[in-house]
Amino acid sequence: MSEATLDGRGRLTLPKEVRERYGEHYRIVQLHDGIKLIPIEDDPLDALRSEFADVEKTAAELRQRARDGAIDEAGR
């Protein structure tokens, strides 16, 4: 874990290791006991394409599977 301090203008500088690993753009989420920084990809659509590159089903097939699962779970 690292530490960072706000400067006089309220800016926070993340350690170099963090920037190199996660990038330079973040979404700030306020929690009840603090904040969370969530990295934002430079091209979010490219990130999604990479994440699901090995999925061989179409979107329609995935939706149908999700519907079927929800119906089964609800107790047809």
UniProtKB/TrEMBL annotation:
SpoVT-AbrB domain ranges (all copies): 4-45
Single GO term (MF): DNA binding
Entries under InterPro entries matching the protein: SpoVT-AbrB_dom, SpoVT-AbrB_sf
Superkingdom of this protein's organism: Archaea
Protein name per the record: SpoVT-AbrB domain-containing protein
Biological classification of the source: Archaea, Methanobacteriati, Methanobacteriota, Stenosarchaea group, Halobacteria
